Amino acid sequence: MGKKLDAESYLKSGANELRILEYRMAGVSFGINILKVSKIVSELSQCTAMPETHPAVKGVFRDMNLLIPLVDLAGFLGITSKTSKRSKVIVTEFFGIHTGFWVEQIDWIHHFLWEDVIDTDGVFRNIDHRYVIGIVKPTEERMVLMLDYETILLDLCPHLRQMDLDRGSSDVNFTGKKILVAEDSPAVRAMLVNEFTEHGGEVVQAGDGQVAWDFFQKEKFDLVICDVEMPQMDGLNVTLRIRQSERSDTPVIVYSSIGDVGMKARAQFLKADAHITKLNMDKLMETADKLMRGEKLVSEEAFDEPAIKEELQAVPLD
User: What is the per-residue burial (b if ≥16 Cβ within 10 Å, else e) of 237-265?
Assistant: First the structure.
C-alpha cells in the first residue's frame, strides 16, 4: 500500500541539517521535514467518510492496524486545483497522532541546512501567513513553502489545545525564573508563553534557533525550552552550542512534536536535560519545575515520558 522513508539515516546530532520532502498541489510546491513523515501511500484503496467532521477531513482509511484520518490539504488551505485527483497520501506522525495528508503529486527529497530556511515573518511582515512558516529554494528560480503542520492539526482539532492546557494546570510557581522559549510555530509558542507566564515566569521568546542563541549569549536564563525544527538553527544545534558555552549547566528541555526513539536519543546524546513530546504539558511543567529547583532527572524520567497516544488518538478531527 505504501512505503516507509528512511528518516533516521541522515540527521547527524547537532549538524543543523534537514531533508525536505517536496510535494505539489495546484502547481504550488510545498515541503515537509521527512522526520515527520511515517510513510507514503501511493494508492489509497478505500476511504470511509465520517459525518460531522471538518470539511477538509474526507474520512478515515486503514493502514495495517491503524485507522488514519484523511485530510484534503489543498481544500484545507483554500487552494483551488484544476484537478480533483489526489493520488498520494503523506502519512505523518507527530503529537503522537497519525494523520494522512492527501496531495496531488510527490516530487523528491531535498537536502538543506536549517540556515537555508527563509523565515516568512521577515518576508510577509504584517501580512497574515498563518500556515506558511518557512521557504526553501532548491534553485534560484524555484521556491518550496514549508507549512506549520502543528498549527494545521490544532486548527483541525481544537480539542487538542484545551487538552494540553488542562494538562499544564499543575501547582508550580516560576516566580523569579527567566525562561527562554525557542519555537517557530506561533500557535505552540503562544501556548508555552501563556502557560509559563501564568505560573509567574518571565518568558523571552524566539521564533528561530539563531535568535534564541543570540538571546542566550546576552542574557542569563534559568531554563531553555527548544523545539527541534526551526529556521536558521535547529534545536539540537542550539542545545549543542549551549553545552559548549560558558553557561553549559543551563537546563535545556527539547520540546518536539517528533517523539520517536531516535529523536530522544539525539537529545540525550547532546546532553539535553530532557526530551518531551509536544501536547504533554503536564510533563513539561513538572520537568521544568524540577530542573529550575536544581533536581537531577534520571534517564528514564527525562527521555521516556508516559505515552499519551491513546488519549490523543481518541480525539476526533472537528
Answer: bbbbbbbeeeeeebbbbbbbbbbbeebbe
